[in-house]
Amino acid sequence: MYLYSNSTIKVLLMSTLSQNLRKLRKTKGLSQEKLARLADVANNTIIKIESGKNNNPTLDTLKKIVKALDVSVDDLMK
């Protein structure tokens, strides 16, 4: 049995989010700038999430991104 602290779980989730966002964006053939425009978020938001520097994107931001990518939040987090 493994015991993880909340901060460890958060880092693992953010790493997954960052990697999946980049993978899904590239699979759709989108640049960071194009995804940001489609999702109506700042380009810097996409850059920071993908680089792991934004460790607390809002649910609203995530909803906009998944809508622009035509995927579910689960797809982004798995």
As for the CATH topology of the domain at 31-78, it is 434 Repressor (Amino-terminal Domain)
CATH architecture designation of the domain at 31-78: Orthogonal Bundle
Give the overall shape. Answer: globular
Percent range of helical residues = over 70%
Span between N and C termini? 21 Å
CATH superfamily of the domain at 31-78: lambda repressor-like DNA-binding domains
Number of contiguous helices:
5
Q: Indicate the structural class.
A: mainly alpha
Q: Element order, helices and strands?
A: HHHHH
CATH class of the domain at 31-78: Mainly Alpha
Radius of gyration: 13 Å
Low-confidence parts, pLDDT < 50 over ≥5 residues? 8-12
Strand elements, count? 0
For the residues shown, what is the average pLDDT? 86
State the major sheet: none
- Name the beta content range: under 5%
At a glance:
The protein has 78 residues and is mainly alpha-helical.
Explained architecture:
With 78 residues, the protein is an all-alpha fold. It has a domain at 31-78: lambda repressor-like DNA-binding domains (434 Repressor (Amino-terminal Domain)), CATH 1.10.260. It is 71% helix and 0% strand. It contains five helices and no strands. It has helices at 6-27, 32-39, 43-51, 59-69, 73-77. Helix 2 (32-39) packs across helix 3 and helix 2 (32-39) packs across helix 4 (59-69). Residues 8-12 have low confidence and may be disordered.
